[in-house]
Structure prediction request, 170 residues.
Amino acid sequence: VVFNRSGPYRGVIAGWDEITKVPLDWPSLSRARQPWLSKPHYSVLVDGGGSTYIVDDNTELEKVPKEVRNPYVHRLFKRFNGQVYMPTDDLRSMYPQDDAIAPLLLRRLCNFCGKGGASINCSRCRLVLYCSQECFEEAAPEHVRHCCPVEQPRLQGTPHAAAGYGGGRA
Prediction:
């Protein structure tokens, strides 16, 4: 889940292009925007409905991801696991090199307060991290709604066994 730094919206990335693929006659492609044409662009399903196509420079991952309310989310993603949206097989086949989980595991941000250095994880999904037992306990009621054993993350072949729900050390 990302938010746009130059606009007041957030959403989920549903696709991307290495460089922009918009028609050259688009009004928004003024001379001032020419340097952005050679940068990655993302198709984003916007929270609240609608979609947009934005340059990589304007996006940032949400520290504490929340669900995106958009009628098209369920066409492209199986579910939201409390940290990331899990793509459908069709979407995954369009972007076979993508792994939404691995970069999030490396960030080690608390899923409740957003603080770095989180080391307590959910022992069931092994994705969501917390910086303290207090944050874990505060977040548990919301996390339980999304928590489920995940598909094996493609994190350099490291197995992540799904155990029971609860706080464990990462």
Remarks:
- The first strand starts at residue 2 and ends at 4.
- DSSP finds four helices and ten strands in the chain.
- Residues 152-170 have pLDDT under 50 and may be disordered.
- Helices lie at 73-76, 89-94, 101-107, 133-146.
